[in-house]
Structures are given as C-alpha cells and as structure tokens.
Amino acid sequence: MSFIKSSGFKYFKNLIIGVGAAVVMVGALMKITSHPLGNTFITIGLLTEAFLFFMLGILPPEKDYYWDKLYPGLDKYNANIAPLTASGAAARNLDADVVENKLGGMLDELQGMSKSLGSLKALQEVDFSKTSEHLKGMNNFYTRMQEAMKYMDASVDDTKAYKDQMAALNKNLSSLNGVYGNVLNAFSVNKG
Fold first, then answer.
1. Terminal-residue alpha carbon distance, the chain
2. Is 80 left (phi over 0), alpha (psi -120 to 50) or beta?
3. Which string of b and e fits 86-97 if b means at least 16 CB within 10 Å?
4. Are 59 and 52 in contact (CB under 8 A)?
5. Which DSSP category does 95 fall into?
6. How many whole angstroms separate alpha carbon 69 and alpha carbon 43?
7. What pLDDT shows up at residue 21?
8. 88-107, pLDDT tens digit by residue?
9. Cβ neighbours, 10 Å, residue 45
10. Per-domain residue ranges of the chain
11. Per-residue pLDDT tens digits for 156-177
C-alpha cells in the first residue's frame, strides 16, 4: 500500500491518465477525418482509459482533509479565522504580510544556519595533523627574525657612529682648508 501512496506512483498515474486521454482524442480526430490510423489510435486510447478506470476502481480513494470545517473561511485571503477547538476564543485575523515576514525571517535564519554548518563542515575537512610542525617552524622564523632585528639595531648604531665621525672629519677638513688658504694668501702677499 505504501507504493500506491508514494508521490512517484501518483505522478505515474496522472501521466498515464493524461497520455491515455490524449491518445483517445487524437484517435477520435483521426476517425472523424477518416485517417487510416484512426481505428488503431482510438482502440489504444480506449483500452488505456478502460485500464485506468479499472485501476481507479480498485485503488482506495485518498483521504480528504476538510480544513475549512476546522478553520471556516480558510479559502478566503483575509479571512477572520478562529479554530473550532479554540472554544469561543476571539477570532484572529490571518494577515498575509505578517505570515510572509515571519516566514522570511525564518528563511534568513535557516540560510544563516546553513552557512554556519557549511563552515563547520569545511573546518572538519581541514587536516590539523601537521599544525604542530607549522607552529614550530613559525616559532623558529620568529626567533631568527628577532636575531636579525638585533643585528640591524647594532648596524644602525654603527651607522650613526660612522655618520658622526664623517661629520667630525668634514669639520676638520674645512678647518684645514681654511688654514691652507691662509698660508697660500700669506705666500702670495710676500711674493708680490
């Protein structure tokens, strides 16, 4: 019985009914227009329809739910709906905008949860087996970087000392140039 209630069987049943009806109509048209295949088509279509009516007679009917008896006015868009089980409680107005907003909010939350679950799945697939080695390598890199910074600090200090010495040397050379210029002037005055 579960196969008969499956959506696949219901789809197949509707497909056969539709195709059978189409074949009967085409067969009737061919018969009316005296087409040579008219008899064949109408025979196939009528046999198909006879089989379907036989099958529908054997299969139990599907259960009908009468929601409009429990919620009178359910088939109207802006109906005031109060369930009969509310035992006289005030009728609530079914506001489509409120329902759509709540459903939209729920959809947003579900999409957020889906993204979170996707992130967790991606995290689950990450291989952390070599993380310890990577951390040791990063620690070694950090230690060597600190040593290089110390050497650079020492180099900067040496560069400052060199700059100071060059400034003193430049000052001394300027003084020597001044003395040399005085000596040359003294010689040129004595010659002349």
1. 138
2. beta
3. eeeeeeeebeee
4. no
5. -
6. 44
7. 84
8. 444 345 556 667 777 777 88
9. 20
10. 1-63, 65-94, 95-129, 136-179
11. 888 888 888 888 888 888 888 8
